[in-house]
Design brief:
It contains eleven helices and eight strands. With 251 residues, it is an alpha/beta fold. It is globular and about 45 Å long. The two termini are 32 Å apart.
Length: 251
């Protein structure tokens, strides 16, 4: 495990990594998740072996610190991720990012373009105010202190055992602030960033999640949108073959 300070006050973002060739692949988890849990089984596949791979836990999640003073906005998360990549001496990385992690990856690519050479986004949040079925909506329905006092436990019961297994490791206050920030979005908005980036961009949409809003406009901007058969939001679990093919650049 490696670590880097991210807030100027001693708090540290942490990651594990495997050695290999550059450019590195950097795996970024979603809201209430852990990078290695969601992506290590993909990085270990034969078609992806031999590449340096980093599994980064965003602030407030997994093994990273969870300072109470931190804002946990998308920009805050992106700057913390940049601190990790700077400490790891990573530039021009391929970012494989899920859900909220995809939003963070887009903000990072906008703020620090030298760090990112390619994006593989899995059902990344592209707009503000996700639908009522989104986990961030359930979390942000509470006031922050109410969520910390009891809402966290109620949401854990609602999300099911798979997501709860990692969400229970996240700091409740950090989780709430991250969800609220995700619902606010970024400036410029994530969708606008994605359409304007001059790099290879792949967007994975699970077939079971329905059609991606604004797909034609994204494709016109050069984004490869791939509908993954038999998959929902967690494409890396539901169809790992298709997911690995996308990361390997075979779609």
């Amino acid at each position: 495990m490696r670590q880097a300070e991210f807030d100027g006050k001693g708090s540290r973002i942490r990651w594990t990594e495997t050695p290999g060739e550059e450019p590195a692949r950097v795996y970024v988890h979603g809201l209430g998740a852990v990078s290695a849990v969601y992506h290590a089984h993909i990085a270990a596949r034969p078609e992806l072996a031999g590449r340096r791979s980093l599994f980064v836990d965003l602030p407030g999640h997994g093994s990273s610190d969870r300072p109470e003073h931190f804002g946990y906005t998308l920009e805050d998360h992106a700057d913390a991720l940049a601190a990790a990549l700077d400490a790891a001496r990573v530039t021009g990385a391929e970012l494989i990012a899920h859900s909220m992690g995809g939003s963070v990856a887009l903000v990072l690519a906008h703020r620090r373009p030298e760090l990112v050479s390619r994006l593989v986004l899995t059902e990344a949040n592209l707009d503000a105010a996700p639908p009522a079925t989104a986990g961030s909506t359930w979390i942000d329905a509470y006031e922050e202190d109410d969520f910390v006092a009891g809402g966290h436990a109620r949401v854990l019961e609602k999300v099911g055992p798979l997501w709860a297994a990692t969400m229970r490791l996240a700091d409740p206050r950090a989780l709430h602030r991250s969800a609220a920030a995700l619902r606010r979005g970024s400036a410029p908005m994530m969708r606008a960033i994605l359409g304007g980036l001059p790099i290879d961009r792949v967007y994975l949409q699970g077939e079971l999640s329905g059609e991606l809003e604004g797909r034609e406009a994204l494709e016109a901007a050069g984004v490869r949108v791939v509908t993954v058969p038999g998959a929902g939001h967690n494409v890396m679990f539901d169809n790992p073959d298709a997911f690995a093919a996308a990361v390997a650049g075979k779609v």
